[in-house]
């Protein structure tokens, strides 16, 4: 009978320790403009990515490739707000584009991902 309080206490501590703390978070993509998977009518002048927490631009990058996987020259990485990164884009013809991103959050965790968007033919 005396083992029950110990067991309940141990389970309580295990639950507390397994619960993620704010310092354990990672910066994941919250939203992008153009939107992930979208088709836009006119070529965007810039690509903006907003993350779930603040990112360190010095250790982050955004790459854009065309439908054949050829990398495009994008502008310098801008950091207009703590969780946001932006690059200017060259004049994009119609087609599919892949975005590859890698960021380091302010708590030094690295995350990365890819998504696509398309530019509609005129």
Total domain count = 1
What is the residue-averaged pLDDT?
87
| Intertermini distance | 77 Å
Number of strands: 8
Largest sheet: 4 strands, antiparallel
How are helices and strands ordered from N to C? HEEEEEEEE
The order of strands across the largest sheet is 1-3-6-5
Gyration radius, in Å: 21 Å
Number of helices: 1
Summarize the helices and strands and which ones pair or pack:
Elements: H1 3-18, E1 29-33, E2 39-40, E3 46-51, E4 61-65, E5 78-81, E6 84-88, E7 95-104, E8 110-119
Parallel strand pairs: 2-8
Antiparallel strand pairs: 1-3, 3-6, 4-7, 5-6, 7-8
Fold and architecture overview:
With 122 residues, the protein is mainly beta. The longest helix is centred in the N-terminal third of the chain and has 16 residues, at 3-18. The chain has one helix and eight strands. The radius of gyration is 21 Å and the shape is elongated. Strands 1-3-6-5 form a four-stranded antiparallel beta sheet, with no helix packed on it. The chain has a four-stranded mixed beta sheet with strand order 2-8-7-4, with no helix packed on it. It has one domain: Immunoglobulin-like (Sandwich).
Supply the key terms.
1 helix, Immunoglobulin-like, 4-stranded antiparallel β-sheet, 4-stranded mixed β-sheet, 122 residues, 8 strands, elongated, mainly beta
In short, what is this structure?
This protein has 122 residues and is mainly beta.
């Amino acid at each position: 009978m005396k083992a029950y309080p110990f067991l309940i206490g141990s389970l309580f501590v295990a639950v507390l320790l397994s619960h993620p703390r704010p310092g354990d978070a990672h910066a994941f993509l919250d939203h992008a403009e153009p939107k992930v998977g979208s088709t836009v009518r006119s070529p965007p002048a810039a690509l903006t990515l907003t993350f779930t927490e603040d990112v360190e631009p010095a250790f982050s990058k955004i790459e854009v490739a065309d439908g054949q996987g050829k990398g495009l020259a994008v502008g310098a990485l801008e950091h207009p707000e703590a969780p946001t990164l932006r690059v200017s884009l060259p004049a994009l013809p119609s087609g599919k584009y892949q975005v590859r991103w890698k960021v380091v959050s302010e708590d030094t965790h690295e995350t990365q991902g890819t998504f696509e968007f398309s530019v509609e033919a005129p």
